[in-house]
Structures are given as C-alpha cells and as structure tokens.
Amino acid sequence: MTITTEPGVPKSSPPGTESSALRKLLLRLHFYAGVFVGPFLLVAALTGFVYAFAPTLEKLVYGSYLEAPATDHPLPASEQLRAALDGRDPSAVLSLQTAEAGGSTRVVFDDPGVGSGETTVFVDPGSGKVLGALATDSGDLPLRAWLSALHKNLHLGEVGNLYSEMAASWLGVIVLAGLYLWWAKYRRDRANGRGRLLTVDRSLTGRRSTLNWHGVVGACAALGLIFLSITGLTWSDNAGKNVKTLRTEMSWTTPKLDTAIGAAPAAPAGEHTGHGAPAAPVADGAPVDPSAVDGVLAVARDHGLTGSLSATIPASAAKAWTVKEAATGGDSIAVDGATMQVTDELRFADWPLAAKLTSWGIAGHMGTLFGIANQLLLAALALALITLIVGGYRMWWQRRPRRSEGFALGTVPRRGALRRLPWPAIGGIAVVAVAVGIFVPLLGLSLLGFLIVDVLLGLRSRWQPA
C-alpha cells in the first residue's frame, strides 16, 4: 500500500499569495483531521442518530409506565406517594414529580440494590394505582440511560470517554475549516459564472460531483454541527473541566437555590404560609416527613410555578424542600417543610444569559428542548455528518493514483503552505493553536500528532529517489 504525497511549494513565493497559502494550510488541516478523526465522528454520528429519538422511543417502550388516564381531580400527592411506598422505607424517598396531562406521577427512591442507585415508581394520579417500577439513572429511564452511555463512551468507561471528547473537540474545527474552503471555492467559481454555495450542481461527475455534494451538505449543516461540538464539550472529561472553570471565572454558572433553613422567608406564600416568628433551627439529621409534599407543592403553586413540578425531599429537616418546574428553563423555590415558608426562590428570567444559553444548549443537544422537531433536527444533523464523512473518504479514494503499483490511497494536499504566510500570521496561528490546545487538551495533542505525521511525510518524500 502506498500513500502518495504531493510535492511541497517553493520556499520563496510571489507576493499576494497569503490567502491562497491560508486556504492550502486549512485544506491540509481539514484533510488530516477528516482522515484520522473521521472514524470517531462516524461512531458519534451513528450513536447520536439513535439517541436523538430517545424521548420518542421511551414513550413506545415504557408507555404502560408513562401514560395514565387524564384527570381533572388527581389524588393529593401525599396519597400517591403512600401508594408508591408499598412497603418501602419512607426515608428512602428522594423526589416526586407530578404528572402531566395524560401522564403518570413519578416517585424516586434511593435504592442501593440496583446499579444506578435509584428506582422510580410510576403512579396513576387519578386512581393511585402503581403502574410499575424501573431502575433509573438521575431520572433517565433505562433505555435513555443505555443510549446516553453508548453515545458518550460506548459503554467502555473512561477509555470510551476519549472517543466522544476527540469527536467533539475536532468537529467544530473541521467544520469551520471546511466552511472557509467552500466559501473560497465559491468565490473563485463565481468569478467564472458557475459558483454555487447552497445548491447542488447535478451536471458535475466524478470527484467534482462528490466535492460539490460534500460542500453543500457541510455548508447547510455547519451551524448545527458547531452547536453540537460546543455543547458536546461541556460533558467531556478534560475540556469540560476547563469549560466549567471558565464559566466560574466569568460568573456564567447556573444559579443555585439556598436550601439552608434559619434565614427570614423570601416572600409570603399566601394561605399555606406559617405565621409568626420562624421556627427554631432543626438539628441536622432529623427525619423528614414526606407527607408534607402536599403543602410544599401548594406553596409552589401559590408562587406561580406551573406545569409538572419536581419536589426534591431534603436529606434532613434542617434543609428546605426544592420544587422546580420540570420543563427546561423552569423556575424553582425552596420551602421549609415545617413552616411552609419560602426560604429562597430562583426565577429563570433572572439567570445570567450564559447560564440560560447553557441550559437551552444542553436540552437541545439531548433532543428535549422543543419536542419531536428537536429530535428530527438532531437526526438530520447526524445524517448530514455521516454523509460528510463518507463523502470525504470517497474524495480521498478518488484522488488515488490510477497507475500506481499495488494498493494506493489518495494523495495528500501539498505541503509548505505555512511557509508562504507572513511571520505575523504564522505567529498568530501558533498562539491560537497553543491556546486552543491547552483549553481542549485532546485537540492539542492530536494536532501535535498531525504535525509529526506531516513532518515525517515530508522527510519521506525528500528521501525518495527522483
């Protein structure tokens, strides 16, 4: 097998070639990243395509757990909770999420006997009938939890996490480089009266046709793919830590409720509020009465929380209950279960813009931001990425030498473009590459690997006889 490399450019170049040199530099980067990172991206796209439909698949697989007859007069939450207990230890209750129209109430229990550490019991809100129980993972049902782990690490743990971080690290770089290359080609072709940016030219054949499809699909999907790259990095092990640090330093972190009891109430809570002086502080470790859920939810409704509500039971009576709207971007409050006073509240409208964008971005990446349309959009982006990867490898195959002896792969874009740039531009590229490489470590290490391969190929071409 042979890999053919094109000869390098002369060391001295005529003036006015900086834009051409930048294009060729990005072409070589786009090529190497596409060839070596392509398999990681392909796996991420295939698993992401399936994960995109997780919310819909859950309804199909777990319909008997999730669906219940709609009712205008649901049983009190405390009665539903008692039905869910069914002999379980009341102290094991972690949270209760009220039912949506036509849905079931979810009661989550601490359960060391299952791998995820929790079990969710589903209750018909109208009759109190227990519909079943499932081992869940941070609220995710088994199917979604399994698909999530498949997409994130292929069920290979820490080793598998490297695959998804590599894919997320390079996806945005590959897309941005490809977008520049396609725009540069469009400008050159437009000068000849045949430039097309977002439409396919069906008159082309061979490699030119493949390139045309590759460019159009990439340009149309670019914004969505960059979104997936950025949001995907927030879950990564290495770059994710740096993202978290940056958000902390810039005060972009998601605000948190203060659940400590003892301060004056944040605001009166109507008829459900306790009167008089605040109760004396409760000793940490005192038990919590789960039946207080009715009053806590009533206080939340009085404070304007709507829709399905998730009430989290504190670990001890020295802490307040947390009630949050289940929908993305929901408001939340902290309620003292003993006095029914609101100790803190947090409105989504008051979140910093960066925290709002993070919340929306994560929900959008998971396909839960705007229903089935969100899932279809994610599936379309996954298919577009698969098309780009397959098309990229096909173009490389179409570049192979036709008369080479033995099995030969396509040629590599020309070397030496970096030397044609002015020194300030080279310095700027180096600074940006180092900074990005430090912030996104797998990107930096793999880029260093590409440079080593590039140098070795250059030395190999010099040693080959003419």
Automatic annotation (TrEMBL):
Signal peptide: none annotated. Keywords: Membrane, Transmembrane, Transmembrane helix. It holds the Pfam family PepSY_TM. The keyword Transmembrane helix applies. The chain crosses the membrane at residues 29-54, 167-184, 211-235, 376-396, 423-453. The keyword Transmembrane applies. PANTHER family: IRON-REGULATED INNER MEMBRANE PROTEIN-RELATED, PEPSY DOMAIN-CONTAINING PROTEIN. This is Uncharacterized iron-regulated membrane protein. It comes from Rhodococcus maanshanensis.
